[in-house]
Amino acid sequence: MALELLAQKPLFGPFVLDDTPSSGLDVESKIFGSFHIGPYEVWITQTVVTTWVIMAALILLALIFRLKLKNYKEKPSGSQNVIELIVEFMDNFARSTMTDEYAYFGNWFFGVFCFVLVSNLSGLLGFRPPTADLCTTLGVTLTTFFLIHFMGIKKGKGGYFKGYLEPLPLLLPINIISELATPISLSFRLFGNILGGMIIMAMVYQLPRFLNFGIPAVLHIYFDVFAGCIQTVIFVMLSMTFIKDKIPD
Amino acid sequence: MNQSIDPRAFVLGCSAIGAGLAMIAGIGPGIGQGFAAGKGAEAVGRQPEARGTITSTMLLGCAVAESTGIYGLVIALILLFANPLVDKI
């Protein structure tokens, strides 16, 4: 029943309300079209389209900076300063959260960081942030979930499976539940923060014009810029910590 | 006297009350974040030169403490915007 419900109606993604009285808030991810893959209907939602726009922008930026890389000199100037600042920040971040040995995770998490940050900030440009959709955050989190267990098995070998039976073999189900709770808590934290901010913004925008003069700007700074940046850092830092936790010393 | 209540209206009303009750979860993170901020202020007072590290650690702790409140918020949002209970009538 529950699975059937999910297949017909995404609970979190596009808030499809056929006959339920609408709250009048413009917070739903609109559906632009759909196509079929086998028995499943695939929606092209606002989230998907915004994600494409963000992906295109990020890829374009990356290509531009890749072409500029040839002209970079020993002594940085102009755009080289910015790029070196960002790359060094991420490298130090990865080195301090994981150890120097696993600093190569910084490469992967740099991509995640850029995508989540630009997604969170896209609310400033009038987009519906893709991270205000559980599908996006859960998708990003599932890669972390895969990395946690891949690195655990690769580095821990038998100790990884033995870890599930500690401190008592009786606690095996609880250990499995706690492993499954990791991606849920990670994705819901980001999703809830961004969606909550978005809904409060939508409510403020519904106030009469003379009441909300200037207020949305302040709220945008708090919910989009401050909460967006903090949640991105938290998301990446927790992902790294969870992966590091599974690797034995 | 046999007044019948529309079952949909009843479920929606109860869901609204449930959404309000779910937001009681906000108490926990409030206390937790206040505690973290207080301890952060104490630490800065004791070691003003370590201000940057203390602030970033505190913000991380606050964001983690916030997650239980966010779960409550998600439940409230589901009840208000994507109510699964109405479909069961």
Would you kindly provide a written description of the structure presented here, covering whatever features stand out?
The complex is a heterodimer of chains A (about 250) and B (about 90). With about 250 residues, chain A is mainly alpha-helical. Chain A has one domain. Chain A has 8 helices and 2 strands; from the N terminus they run H-E-E-H-H-H-H-H-H-H. Chain A has helices at about 1-10, 45-70, 80-95, 105-120, 135-155, 160, 170-205, 215-245; strands spanning about 30-35, 40-45. In chain A, strand 1 (about 30-35) and strand 2 form a beta hairpin. In chain A, helix 3 crosses helix 4 (about 105-120). Chain B has a domain at about 25-80: Up-down Bundle (F1FO ATP Synthase). The chains are: A mainly alpha (about 250), B mainly alpha (about 90). The interface of A and B includes residues 28 and 234 of A.
List the helices and strands and how they pair.
The complex is a heterodimer of chains A (249) and B (89).
Chain A: H1 2-8, E1 31-37, E2 40-45, H2 46-68, H3 79-97, H4 105-121, H5 134-156, H6 158-162, H7 172-205, H8 215-246
Antiparallel strand pairs in A: 1-2
Helix pairs in contact in A: 2-4, 3-4, 4-8, 5-7, 5-8, 7-8
Chain B: H1 7-22, H2 27-46, H3 51-65, H4 67-81
Number of domains of chain A: 1
Largest interface: A-B, 27 and 20 residues
The string of secondary-structure elements of chain B, in order, is: HHHH
What radius of gyration of chain B results from the CA coordinates? 21 Å
CATH architecture of one domain in chain B: Up-down Bundle
Spatial extent as radius of gyration of chain A: 21 Å
- By secondary-structure content and strand pairing, the structural class of chain B works out as mainly alpha
Which residue ranges of chain A are poorly predicted, with pLDDT under 50 across at least 5 consecutive positions?
1-21
